[in-house]
Design brief:
Dihydrodipicolinate Reductase, domain 2; 18 strands; alpha/beta; 443 residues; binds L-homoserine; Rossmann fold; six-stranded parallel beta sheet; 13 helices; twelve-stranded mixed beta sheet; binds NADPH dihydro-nicotinamide-adenine-dinucleotide phosphate; Alpha-Beta Plaits
Length: 443
């Protein structure tokens, strides 16, 4: 049987998971692919570091260049993380014409265009199934399964840490800061949690999916992002009364160009690409995706609605995605079809990302106002003048003259109109706290 030799950089959570999964299921790959997969060398930083799964010392080295340059190594796995040395590692392997497998969404988000161009230039391939949503095969689905579809909408819960925190807030009526502290002590959230809870990890992942789905490279600074720090127990409970649940969603929407929905100024696709906390109907299937689980809902113009669900992180789930890339890279080498499925195809020359101000959604708004005659009238006048139609209102009963929450749901309106209306409300003398606004999606 033909053999393919791997060289892996990184033997931490994902790397040791891959090593273990190959020991466990290498025989399955062999019988399914007709290919023996052999791990030849693993580069790490510290030789004696304890590893989630053991890797024999005979395999280990602290010299990653020796792994990349070893003439016996045919496929290089970059599972080290980071965006600086990792970029050098990946480029070094591609320049030798060796296919590279990475799980590194931060690297792809920052340098994807350059790395994909290098893969093309050196006639090899870059595989990245594990970079988005861990064990869920969403990259393969978009690149291959849906190759004949226009992707009109994609909604993803792609950060397990945020989903875990929001789930606990919903189920236990807990406050954000308390759940975050506990998640950190349990090891679900990092000591420095900003990448997750401020939405940047989701931006990396949703940017990769948007680029794949729409054929032009979406840069991270083009993606509007709001994290979950500002979500309170009160908002989750009020949302529940209106029939909604709060999820941090990565959203990719193809915007129809019509006089009603926006300016017809460009010929190419205009895509909304954003990450923000979102109210979705409690009856929608994504509302039941709880704890650390991820899910991606994809609507294609031919296939209709599809849903992918699973673990978005962890040593075993992520290793499963890396094994799928090993199988693809191995088969490509076996049959001499190095770019059977190119990593990224730039096929939309006029595509652009819609500025957040031009996006249109419905809104949940929570104000803190003085409870006295005429307040609701003032607020509804401001919304009316912004051409925003209110669809529903709740005000819990309080003492006349005291500050009370006033919660409004609106019909669809442009983001810019909502921002202007809230700025005006904020200046009212009867307004007693910063207005809270959460977007609402129906899909
Ligand atoms: P870890 O920190 O657990 O592991 C990183 C590994 O890389 C360690 O073994 C480390 O060595 C090694 N390493 C770092 N720098 C070097 C270097 N210069 N030379 C040689 N080895 C080096 O990270 P993870 O396994 O969690 O993550 C790896 C990648 O996978 C990241 O890009 C991450 O974003 C991505 N990912 C992670 C997921 C997860 O669940 N953890 C899920 C999906 C993607 P040593 O062990 O000696 O310190
Ligand atoms: N930190 C990510 C999460 C996992 O919480 O989902 C790695 O992609």
């Amino acid at each position: 049987m033909q053999q393919v030799n791997l060289g892996m950089i990184g033997g931490g959570t994902v790397g040791s998971g891959v090593f273990h999964a190959l020991q466990r299921n290498g025989h399955l790959l062999a019988s399914r692919l007709g290919l023996q997969v052999k791990m030849r060398k693993v580069a790490v930083k510290a030789f004696d570091e304890p590893r989630p799964y053991p890797i024999p010392h005979s395999c280990l080295t602290t010299d990653w260049t020796g792994v990349v340059n070893d003439p016996e190594v045919q496929i290089v796995l970059e599972l080290a993380g980071g965006t600086t040395v990792a970029r050098t590692m990946v480029l070094a392997a591609l320049k030798l014409g060796k296919p590279v497998i990475t799980a590194n969404k931060a690297l792809l988000s920052a340098h994807g265009e350059e790395l994909f161009a290098a893969a093309r230039q050196y006639q090899t391939n870059l595989y990245y199934e594990a970079s988005v949503a861990g064990g869920i095969p969403i990259i393969k689905a978009l690149r291959e399964g849906f190759v004949g579809n226009e992707i009109t909408q994609l909604y993803g819960i792609v950060n397990g840490t945020c989903n875990y925190i929001l789930t606990r807030m919903k189920l236990e009526g807990a406050e954000f800061a308390d759940v975050l502290k506990e998640a950190q002590s349990l090891g679900y959230a990092e000591a420095e949690p900003s990448l997750d809870i401020d939405g940047y990890d989701s931006v990396h992942k949703i940017g990769i999916l948007a680029s794949l789905a729409h054929g032009f490279w979406v840069k991270p600074d083009q993606i509007y992002v709001e994290g979950i720090r500002a979500i309170t127990r009160a908002d989750i409970q009020f949302a529940d009364q209106f029939g909604y649940t709060v999820k941090l969603l990565g959203i990719i929407k193809k915007v129809a160009l019509s006089p009603e929905t926006g300016p017809i100024t460009t010929n190419g696709s205009r895509i909304q690409v954003s990450v923000y906390p979102t109210l979705i109907s409690k009856t929608h299937v994504l509302a039941s995706v709880n704890h650390v689980y991820n899910a991606v809902f994809v609507r294609g113009d031919v296939v209709g609605d599809t849903l992918f669900y699973g673990r978005g992180a962890g040593k075993d789930a992520t290793a499963s995605a890396v094994l799928s890339d090993i199988a693809d890279a191995g088969l490509d080498l076996k049959f001499g079809t190095r770019c059977r499925v190119p990593p990224f195809v730039h096929h939309e020359s006029n595509g652009s990302v819609l500025p957040i101000d031009e996006t249109i959604t419905r809104y949940y708004v929570r104000l803190t106002v003085v409870d006295r005659p005429g307040v609701l009238a003032k607020i509804s006048t401001i919304f009316g003048e912004a051409n925003i139609s209110i669809s529903s209102v709740i005000q819990p009963e309080g003492h006349e003259g005291a500050s009370v929450p006033l919660i409004l749901m609106t019909h669809e309106a442009p983001n810019a109109a909502m921002t202007r209306a809230l700025a005006r409300i904020n200046l009212l003398e009867v307004n007693k706290g910063s207005p809270v606004m959460i977007r609402v999606e129906h899909f």
